[in-house]
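Quick one:
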Amino acid sequence: MWRTEGNEVDDLDRLSQQFEAHRGQLKAVAYRMLGSLSDADDAVQEAWLRLARSGADGVDNLGAWLTTVVGRICLDMLRSRGSRREESLDARTVEPVAAFERTDPEQQALLADSVGLALLVVLETLTPTERLAFVLHDMFAVSFDEIAPIVGRSPAAARQLASRARRRIQADAATPEADLSRQRAVVEAFLTAARKGEFTALLTMLDPDVVLRGDDAAARMGGAPEVRGSQAVAGFFSGRAQGARPAVVDGAPGAVVVLGGQIRIVLSFIVSGGRILAVDVVADPEQLGELDIETVDR
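Output:
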C-alpha cells in the first residue's frame, strides 16, 4: 500500500501526471499492435503498474521508455494469443474508430489515422515480432536499436523483420494466404521446380513483381543483393536449391541449406494468392542464430 503522507505520495502523483501525458500515444501503440480496445487498455494499465513499481529514476526519456514497455507487453499478449490458438482478427469483433468518440481529442487524433479494420486484418497476418517491429518503427519512429532488445534480436535482424512486414502490408491487395500449409505447399513446389530447372513452372509460381533479396553473406556465396521480376528470379533459381530443405522461418514458409551439419543459408518466402511475392536469403551467421527455424520433414 502507498503511504498517505510524505514525499512518496507526492512522487507518485507526479509520476501519474507524467504518465497521463503519454497515455494517448501508448494506447495508440497498443491498439495497433492488438486490434482490441479492451486489450489496449489492459496493456496501458500494465505499463502504468510497472512504472509505479519501478519509478522513473534513471529514465532520460519517459515517453520512449513507456513505448518500449508497452511494446514488450503487447508482444507477450500476442504470443499468448498464439499459444491459445485464438481466432484471427477477422473472426473477432473489432471496435471501429467510432469507439474512440468518448476519448479526449488528443487520443482520438493519435488513433484515427491507422485504426481501420483493413490495416488491422493485414497486421494480424504478421508474426508477433514482425508486427511489433513494423508498428514501432514505421508508425512511431522507434529506432531499431531500441526495438532489437524487445524482440531479442540484433538491430539488423529487427530491421529485416520490419522490412518483411512492410512488404506483406504493401502486398495486401493480393490478400496474403492465411493457411501456412498452403503457403508451404507453394514453396515446396517451387523448390522442386528449381532443382529440376523447370523455368516455366517457376514462372507460374512467381508474382510478376517478385523481389529476391540477399544479405551480404549470401552475396559472397554466389547470391545477389537484389533481383526483381519473375523472369529474373526464375532464372536465378532454375537449376539451384539442390540442398534446400523445407522449413518454417519465424512463422513463415521457408527453406534451409545445411552444410556440415549446420544451417548455412535460410530462405524466407512471402506467399499470397498462390504466388511468391518475395524471398529473403540470410547467410550471416549472427542473423541465422537469431531466427526461429523449424525444419519440416518431407
